[in-house]
Amino acid sequence: MAPAVRSRTRAITRHHAMLLRARIQRNASGRPGPNVITGQYRASWEVKVTVSGGRVTAEVSTQAPQSRRLEYGFVGVDRIGRHYRQPPYPHIEPAFRQTEPAYVDALESGVLG
Question: Residue 98: in which H helix or E strand, if any?
Answer without folding.
Answer: helix 92-107
